[in-house]
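User: Before I run my own analysis I want an independent prediction to cross-check against. Here's the chain; please return only the structure tokens and, at the end, one sentence I can use as a sanity check.
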Amino acid sequence: MKRILVGAATGLVLLGIPARASADLTAFIGVNTSPSNRTATGLAVGFTVAVVGIELEYSNSREDPLMAAPSLKTGMANLMMQTPGAIGGVRFYFTIGGGIYREQLGDIQDTSFATNLGGGAKIALAGPVQLRLDYRTFALRGNPIEGRHQRFYVGANLAF
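Assistant: Structure tokens:
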């Protein structure tokens, strides 16, 4: 009985010790490659406890009428898993999530639900400033003009 009480007390103490939490903000520019290359810009804010986190992201890719490439605006909520710490100054991560999109080409427009999957790396530069490299693939539901989009970006990331 004494072992059970000691074990339970130890478990409660360990649960009471807060895990390392962090947050970051990223401003990015990149390219949406589907169906043709065009500029993508956006912002992301994330909150992580240990290795699991949540990220909220807004992105906007411009329309290219000459290539029949629609604009794409997304608002996503993502689950993020990342390495517990930097490996040689680099912290790798994986994301999966969903949210709302609006795709438009001329007068044709669709707004619906989308999912995304991706990953990347946060590279330490100086203090809380990091370089962020990110790749995402988006699957659009509803009646999209282009059902799958791919995006790669480079961002300035501020950890706090």
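Sanity check: The chain has one domain: 20-159.
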